[in-house]
Amino acid sequence: MDNAPSRRHFLKSGIAAGLGGMALGGTAPLGALEVANEDHVLVVLELSGGNDGLNTLVPYGDDAYYRQRPTLGIKPEKLLPVDDHFGFNPGAQGLHRLWESGDLAAVHGCGYAQPSYSHFTSMGYWHTAAPHSGEAYGWVGRLADALAPGAPPNYLVNVGAGQSLAVNARHHVPVVFDDPATFARDALAHQRPLLDSWFAPGQQSAAPTSNPSRAFLREVAKSARNSSTAIRKAWEGYSSPIDYGIAPLDLPKVAACIAHELPTRLYYVAFRNNAFDTHVQQGPLHQRLLSYAADAIHGFVRDMQRLGKGKKVSVLVFSEFGRRVGENANGGTDHGSANLMFVAGEPVQGGHFGELPDLLDLNPEDNLKHTTDFRRVYASVMDQWLQPGVSQPVLGKAFEPLPLFTGVS
Length: 409
Known about the structure:
The protein is α/β, with parallel strands linked by helices. The chain has a domain at about 40-180 and about 265-395: Alkaline Phosphatase, subunit A (3-Layer(aba) Sandwich). The protein has helices at about 5-15, 65-70, 95-100, 120-130, 140-145, 190-195, 210-235, 250-260, 280-305, 375-385, 390-395; strands at about 25, 40-45, 55-60, 80, 85-90, 105-110, 155-160, 175, 265-270, 315-320, 340-345, 350-355, 370-375. Helix 7 crosses helix 8 (about 250-260) and helix 8 packs parallel to helix 9 (about 280-305). It is globular and about 75 Å long. The relative contact order is 0.22. The model is unreliable at about 1-25 and about 25-35 (pLDDT under 50).
């Protein structure tokens, strides 16, 4: 293949990271990235259900794609082209806009050895960054422990109806909320005045206690109250003219927290309920789902720029696996293995990274062979974006990073 990125990508990254030889963007020097980054924020977005990477960033220049997907293959004239080999799904206009501005990196062939085709199991592997291990703590939680061993409050936030394994930490207690407007401790009506008065500004704290368990519970209650108050104030004070699309996911809630100057460095959000599990009649459904996710990601990146935070916030996007290369008899695709990962934001070095999987050289289950260990992407955002050298203790061993970021400040 001879698929160089657009001139805009060339000018931004300073390299011509073509697709020739199949290796993409793996040799840029990293020394310049080791600078102060204590105020950098990482947002992790999970596309649950197994997003179909092949129909997200479509390899229309490969005839094998159309042979494997005679019905589901998206014709070149319908795609949003990025070069002479790839084009975005027509629903992914937000991602295409980020690509055109040089604010999106696509990492190809991400996965792990001996892949699981179970949503629950594979998501657990991605949440912990420890396939086949039974690790109890999530990679984002372990990262929080490594970056801030003192576990300051509000350092780690998970937006969702329940806590993800990804943010499970040894020392940090993540702030978990769904609706920021009603974020408060549950209580019966007659208990509410007492809870509302505890640790309120100007109020006397509870009497001292020598009971360690009681003291711990009081601290938890105090921290929970302070966190919920901060989140509600952030949401009440936030408004934006930026269009996040029809279904903005939970990204405006993250934007509100960042705008309110919360001390959070790690946010975790998810497109929930296995939305991307497209076994049946995938075409229109997948395009619509991608429009929701892509518009929300684009809106969030632009909102960060509006707030003057564009150079301080990056977004990592993943799904627990891709889809099978060939379409099924129901107009959909079944559980696959290797997949795309995206990193978005103004500090990102836009373009292709990793090694392209061969659509004809499949594993025994007729799925793509992974060419990039997904932990290389995790290592890249840890070491290049958050703190140089932090990935090895978090991941348990060294993974070669990819040059996903331009010079950072």
